[in-house]
Amino acid sequence: MLFKCTPVELDFIAVAPLSFENSVEVDASAEAVFDILADVNSWPRWFSGMTKVVWNGKAKGGVGAQRTISLMGLVKVKETFLEWQPGKRFCFRFERQNALLARAAVEDIHLTDLDDGRCRVDYNVYMELPRPLSPLALLLKPVLGTIFKRGAEGLKAYVRR
Questions:
Q1: Structural domain boundaries enclosing 77
Q2: I want to staple 87 with a disulfide (CB 3.0 to 4.6 A). Which of 12, 30, 83, 146 is the partner?
Q3: At a CB cut-off of 8 Å and minimum separation 6, what does 139 contact?
Q4: Which of 80-84, 124-128, 138-142 has the lowest mean pLDDT?
């Protein structure tokens, strides 16, 4: 990984220049959805463009655990978990990347049980673009928003199977 991201914490959510908030209701409990999120092998099945996800080191989840994702087989992002609350919250930040995608980013997924064994998934992403891309924020926001919305919808469809 060539580019180090700014190591932000949860307070970044309140000040991030870009935010993307998506909610979907899925036909599974919050615990079941959390198990899907924690399964690195499931992500490429429901998140369009993601080709591989692997744990780094011995930890396979939990606060401080790290994983690396591959997008389209070309872009790699190393992530560190900030929150790991089974059935409730799944949150990580970007650490390093091999492409200038974000100066800082936090993905924060909240799960809320609903009636009849269903749950609401609030899939939120907070980012700051790298300086060279900052002037393009107005153009990039709809593109990035579509990617994250498709992620939330992909999870909903995956659960439905």
A1: 3-160
A2: 30
A3: none
A4: 138-142
Q: How far is CA 50 from CA 6, 29, 134, in A?
A: 23, 24, 24
Using the Cα atoms of residue 24, residue 10, residue 70 and residue 43 in order, give the sign of their dihedral.
Answer: negative
- CA separation, residue 46 to residues 7, 65, 72, 111 (Å): 27, 22, 14, 17
Cβ atoms of residues 95 and 78 within 8 Å: yes
Q: Distances in Å between the alpha carbon of 70 and those of 15, 56, 66, 150? A: 27, 13, 14, 17
Domain harbouring 115, CATH code: 3.30.530.20
Q: Report CA 137 to chain centroid distance, whole Å.
A: 19
Q: Tell me the sheet residues that pair with 156.
A: none
pTM greater than the 0.90 cutoff: yes
Number of structural domains the chain divides into: 1
The HSE-up count of residue 2 (CA atoms within 13 Å, CB side) is 5
